[in-house]
Hints:
Layout: E1 8-11, E2 18-26, H1 30-37, E3 38-39, E4 50-58, E5 61-71, E6 82-89, H2 91-103, E7 107-108, H3 113-120, H4 126-137, H5 141-151, H6 156-178, H7 189-208, H8 210-218, E8 220-226, H9 232-240, E9 258-264, E10 267-273, H10 283-298, E11 301-307, H11 313-326, E12 330-335, H12 342-349, E13 354-355, H13 364-374, H14 390-411, H15 416-434, H16 440-447
Parallel strand pairs: 1-7, 8-10, 8-11, 11-12, 12-13
Antiparallel strand pairs: 1-2, 2-6, 3-4, 4-5, 5-6, 9-10
Helix pairs in contact: 4-5, 6-7, 6-15, 7-14, 14-15
The protein binds guanosine-5'-diphosphate and magnesium ion.
Amino acid sequence: MSKFNDTIIALATAQGISAIAVIRLSGTDSIAVTQKLFKGKNLLEQPTHTIHFGTINNGDKMIDEVLVSIFKEPNSFTKENAVEISCHGSPIIVKEIIKAFLKQGVRLAEPGEFTKRAFLQGRFDLAQAEAVADLIHAETDNARQAALNQMRGGFSNEIKRLREELIHFASLVELELDFGEEDVEFAKRDDLAILIKKIQSYLTSLIESFDQGNAIKNGIPTVIAGRPNAGKSTLLNALLNEERAIVSEIAGTTRDVIEDEMQLGGISFRFIDTAGLRETKDVIEAIGVQRTKEQMQKASLILYLFDLSTLTAREIQDDIFSLDELGIPYFKIGNKLDLVDPALIEKLAAQNFIFISASNKTNIEQLKEAILAKFKINEVKQGDVLVTNLRHYENLTQTYESLERVLYGMATDVTGDFLAMDIRQSLHYLGLITGEITTDDLLDNIFSKFCIGK
Length: 454
Ligand SMILES: Nc1nc2c(ncn2[C@@H]2O[C@H](COP(=O)(O)OP(=O)(O)O)[C@@H](O)[C@H]2O)c(=O)[nH]1
Ligand SMILES: [Mg+2]
């Protein structure tokens, strides 16, 4: 593992005025550098995990009264010497303090650099490091619990254990190769097959958890679509209980995509209002219609609105045909219930329509219940293992497929060198998940998404 000599600094709390701001430093010299700017006790003589009152000074100028917490390696988040300075939460104080440290040769931290150092120093594996970011960005309690579970171990330990067992077999198969012509078999093929099936069964449970995990982490994009004037913008406002989108009797009012989030039953739903679907000569409206189609393709659910007051059988037929062709789950919603004759309702009820009046807020709760029933998730509990990260999902799937190739290879009696190659490939994908195998690009990609100071 690489050692870092340079000391990094960043504001760890949110920008802006606050009661207290925390500036953090990490690196071999962080305590020594702080001592140069600090008036109070000699920090270098203090034990780890202690807090000290004093002032931070730039030359003769006192910047602020502060509390300094010191953490000595390896007992800090980064496993390096680390300091946290709690000062008054003024942006100008924060700026002056950081400037004073920069003058001492300290460097501004890059996004996620503290967590990256913690990972490189072996504090946790890559999947756990990624969970740190998820934890900070969690918007629902379920998302928080899923991230916390992953940060505290999640599938990491089991994957590491299975990977080691597989490494053992890989080396036995490779040893056989050294014996060339002689017909030796150190790696018992039956035992290898049993291990692979065991790993695959664990992978399957993880892969299957991604549907829920992804919904919990990223929310469920729900597109409100339909023809102009069906009442889409009115429905968005009714769902969110606020005047988010402009409602008008003029067809073609909504030209851009408008969206907002709402939590239902522990999941966050992203409701997306769109431009009405129709042929149009208006260039701007046409762009809106194009965007609607793109949004519909990316949606997890479409709330498709029909205007019951103008509806024709032909319209239902055409629109449902297009929806079925798209292949995304959808609800058929009949709007403007207040304007319609009960005979029509009876006819459409047989076709699974949900009836609402968006402007009168009739049956909006029932609609929410129907949406929720479609995406029912179990509450995430402590210790539940859920895959929420697309990168993990993809690597898990690739591992599974490469293990299939190992099994196929054994079934068709391929030579040992091909078998060894397929096992190595599986090990590669497994290693990417927990970070035994990394590249600079992969790390940059992951940690650049963190905030500065994390
Ligand atoms: N009577 C009635 N009018 C509605 C209802 N929902 C929407 N409207 C009206 O239908 C018109 C078009 O609504 P809007 O939400 O802008 O439709 P959009 O083009 O699909 O976004 C407006 O005049 C709304 O007030 C409803 O449930 N009943
Ligand atoms: Mg609209």
